[in-house]
Amino acid sequence: MPRSKIFPSFAEAVSDIADGSVVGFGGFAVVGMPVNLYQALAEQGAKNLTCVSNGTGGGATLPADAPNLSRLISNNQVSKVICAFTAPTRASQRLVLTEYVDKGLIEAELVPQGTLAERMRAAGAGIPAFYTPAAVGTELAEGRETRVFGGREYLLEEALPLDYAFIRAWQADAFGNLRFRRSQRNFNPVMAMAARVTIVEVEEEILPRGAIDPDDVHLPGIFVHRMVKIPPPPEGWWPRRPAEIAAQQQAGRNAR
Amino acid sequence: MPRSKIFPSFAEAVSDIADGSVVGFGGFAVVGMPVNLYQALAEQGAKNLTCVSNGTGGGATLPADAPNLSRLISNNQVSKVICAFTAPTRASQRLVLTEYVDKGLIEAELVPQGTLAERMRAAGAGIPAFYTPAAVGTELAEGRETRVFGGREYLLEEALPLDYAFIRAWQADAFGNLRFRRSQRNFNPVMAMAARVTIVEVEEEILPRGAIDPDDVHLPGIFVHRMVKIPPPPEGWWPRRPAEIAAQQQAGRNAR
Amino acid sequence: MSDAAKGLTRQQMCDRLAMEFQDGWIVNLGIGIPTLCSNCDFGDKEIIFHAENGVIGYGPLARPGDEDLHLVNAGGQHVTLQPGAAIVHHADSFGIIRSGRIDVTVLGAYEVAANGDFANWKTAGQKGGGIGGAMDLAACAKHVFVAMEQTTRNGAPRLVERCAIPVTARGVVDLVITNYGLYEITADGMALKEIAPGVTVDEVRATTGCNLIVPREVPPVRLRA
Amino acid sequence: MSDAAKGLTRQQMCDRLAMEFQDGWIVNLGIGIPTLCSNCDFGDKEIIFHAENGVIGYGPLARPGDEDLHLVNAGGQHVTLQPGAAIVHHADSFGIIRSGRIDVTVLGAYEVAANGDFANWKTAGQKGGGIGGAMDLAACAKHVFVAMEQTTRNGAPRLVERCAIPVTARGVVDLVITNYGLYEITADGMALKEIAPGVTVDEVRATTGCNLIVPREVPPVRLRA
Asked: How far A223 CA sits from the closest chain D CA (Å)?
């Protein structure tokens, strides 16, 4: 029997991440974001990471101090980000990333979201490159190879393989078969397929092998290598309604 | 409200298939094969069809006279096939297709199975072309464009869009959300995504809209346009264990 | 200088665009003003809202306290699901977009040009940008509608002859709604089709940075009773 | 002329190859002889069988009368599922193959050459062919094993210096089992590693169409007790 995929702690699950690794982080607007794995990687301290993610921030369902890609950046662990958002979308916003890019400390590769997803899907499907209509005629296509198929111009894009995928799932069995709940699925299965090693934070108790019907598996266990059950709060990070977060923070202030 | 996707008969569901259409037929070794839609198309009579399928035959879980792609071929409805099997794999086998190819009546395009699936997935995903390692260095790559990525040679393959996908599913709701059972999934969702119009033969009673949990849908209803509930045998075609088929045929012979 | 509060409210802008949605359309809404379109009343029409994160068939925003923390739209707002909804992953979701199955995408913009170009991912001089799914959507949706304020906070026109900042896609915009009116991009250029209550054609012209085709009689923006 | 019944049975051929499967391997079995590998006893080793049609984690053939008519392997045989099995569609199934996740594919062949080329999709002079998933598998699996008879029905060698018929992939075969013995493709060519009980080295040489590296002592093919 191969070694169990169930790890007792996040620290053990990320202990071997080497400097210079390419790590993908799932999640979209907090949902499915591997908050606990962000924290573990911040504590583990690997440097010169290339980080792939939709964006660098968190969202309203987590406290402002919850770990995210910005935390790794301000922790000086990141040398490159590959994201669909590398600058604020509103004048009122400020990204931690901006300061590091301005100082030349981090390289930021901006990729349209669909291209980002498809580049990882390609890596996971053994496709080294493909053509896409997205970004044709824009600054992002300047100086790059395009080609016409059926009278329309397309941009050549290469696969984006990952060393590690950090993802969050709803349900898992001991073999690593996963289910995601609602929009939690987003980038998570795609990143797992692109990765050499997939590490999962799991919301529900990990089920015995085979407890998920084969027809209902969202990501087969052959793509999953390490899993950790998220402990209840406050030890584990769990998104909450913004009103609850505000109330708790208020209570904390009042207690001081 | 748009028109209902539920059609009362297979004949009505296929009535508008025009001569020269490109039609994909799902299924793998009978499982998920749209047997009833094959029959309806044979009766409808459209000609000069380009037919996309894994192979041209049926299998041991259907009687020898059950409709399949060979039936359409011998019915003179087909001008081209695109398949992963265009010749017998054993000396003892004989394909209807062979005779038509030898006479120059049908063009047969032989495509590796993974490339066939990926060409349709590409069509369904708006990718006009991609590179694959399959078939490099073989007769199928002769004279074709290859390119090196990361030191390895890959073959350029173009998307394969379909006018119609004919598929078979296990469960459906009225909006066209589908579930497949076990290996019935195979090519079926991929062909539906590649097609302009998807027509489905459904095994179970069609459920009210929303009866399938959104997390459990295998093929979203936006890819599905027409559905017909398969009637019980003998009106509808249902695979059976080979021993049962043999017993029934024996009974039929004894009765004569 | 324009008054951002003048003319249509943001919900009215979205209500007007939503009247253009046809029965059975698959609609994708960008972050910002466009998200208000999923709150509209479509009567007998069936509209299927698709979000980049793989949600097909969402509906109005969830009521506070009723949010499903596993379910957001592309703007990160907690939404509800309609009967018949389905979930796919991000690569499949953009497969739906790139294969041309989105009937219309409604996007915000910094600038829309008379030739149908538009810009919504980076401001002048900014390093990097916030593209999200806009480039995939703009390049591939059957129709591209834009919902934005008539001018910037400083009163500069957002309707322009040619985009001054990097574009999201070229020649793709069909229809633009601002708080001042409804505009169509035609073969001849930008055309004012309907004007907001309380706004004059002179005010529209003064806040528009491109040649504008204006009919003799400009009907008021159609609003539901 | 060879005797197809001589030496190993087909199940013994597969049993011997299956001994090479390592704990945790993902294994894909081609149509014909190789399908017998899923009937082997792997003891404590966990072997995950993958089929082209998207079944991950199948096990032995179903007992007659117990077949699930919705479940077949790549050869169309009704199989059973192991705990932890999962189903994907055809494009994802071949994504698993092309991305190099199959540790070994066991395929049938018409010919295997001393340089690791092999041919299994069309016979001499045949129009078209039956490729199935063999080209994807052969190009992408970490290991390619071949299980076939030592010779054709006419006694012609299947182990050859260079393939005479169109190849499935070039330079990919690691290991070959026939009813006569086990062969390894080495940098120096085809090497006889083990010989079947009741078969002599002279008989092997007489039925092999390429130069053969033969150790002084050829051990018998290992078989389970």
From this structure: 9
